[in-house]
TrEMBL record:
Residues annotated as domain OmpR/PhoB-type: 124-218
One Pfam family hit: Trans_reg_C
Ranges of the DNA-binding region feature: 124-218
List of residues that carry 4-aspartylphosphate: 51
UniProt source species: Kribbella lupini
Lineage per the UniProt record: Bacteria, Bacillati, Actinomycetota, Actinomycetes, Propionibacteriales
Domain Response regulatory, first and last residues per copy: 2-116
Protein name per its UniProtKB record: Response regulator transcription factor
Keywords tagged on the record: DNA-binding, Phosphoprotein
């Protein structure tokens, strides 16, 4: 999934991003509300992890923007305010979930995954196609009961191909979902990842190239 983390404490923001990237999500960072609005206007995110007390533009206003703009992005609001009234107020703004600081990174990752499922048509708990089994929660892939160790990017790309249910996925779509905003679209990152993925999945080949369009698992 593509996640935007908006947090003005750099160390916490970096820790959240690292944890979510370990879960194979593509993560962008913003340090204030204005930067968050800029990124939301450019990129499409599945989940927004949003600190409520932000400089420049308050987190409440960022949340309102997401709701009023009709963006499909789900909002997980973070705050140090733990009172019930604060949680109710945050949810009343249109946030989909609310997590108080301090929090366990495992819980944050689980909530992000749950919200991500709501930002798109519901996926089955385990993705299966052409002898492949991909379990997002366990971060495991099997081909015909053989465990296939994949890197984070390979796992993310394979998940998007399986979610497409046989349809072709363009390189641009894979970049949007599996890489963050710092990737150079001309580096051949998608092609190289597909090449490595094919090698690890083994024969007979499963990932087809549709010339001029993208990739698919028929």
């Amino acid at each position: 999934m593509r996640v935007l983390v908006v947090e003005d404490e750099p160390l916490l923001a970096a820790a959240i991003a690292e944890w979510l990237r370990d879960e194979s999500h593509a993560v962008d960072l913003a340090g204030d509300g204005a930067a968050a609005l800029d990124r939301l206007s450019i990129n499409q995110y599945d989940v927004l992890v949003l600190d409520r007390d932000l400089p420049v533009v308050h987190g409440d206003d960022v949340c309102r923007h997401v709701v009023e703009s009709g963006l499909p992005t789900r909002v997980l609001m973070l705050t140090a305010a733990a009172a019930v009234t604060d949680r109710v107020e945050g949810l009343g703004l249109g946030a989909d979930d609310y997590l108080t600081k301090p929090f366990a990174f495992t819980e944050l990752a689980a909530r992000v995954l749950a919200l991500g499922r709501r930002s798109r048509p519901a996926d089955p708990p385990v993705l299966r196609r052409a002898g492949l089994t991909l379990d997002p929660a366990r971060h495991e892939v099997f081909r015909d009961q053989r465990y296939v160790p994949l890197s984070k990017k390979e796992f993310a790309v394979l998940a998007e191909l399986l979610r497409a249910d046989g349809a072709t996925v363009s390189a641009e779509q894979l970049l949007e979902k599996a890489w963050d905003e710092h990737v150079d679209p001309f580096t051949g990152a998608v092609r190289l990842t597909i090449l490595k993925l094919r090698r690890k999945l083994g024969e007979p080949g499963l990932v087809e190239t549709v010339t001029g369009v993208g990739y698919r698992i028929p």
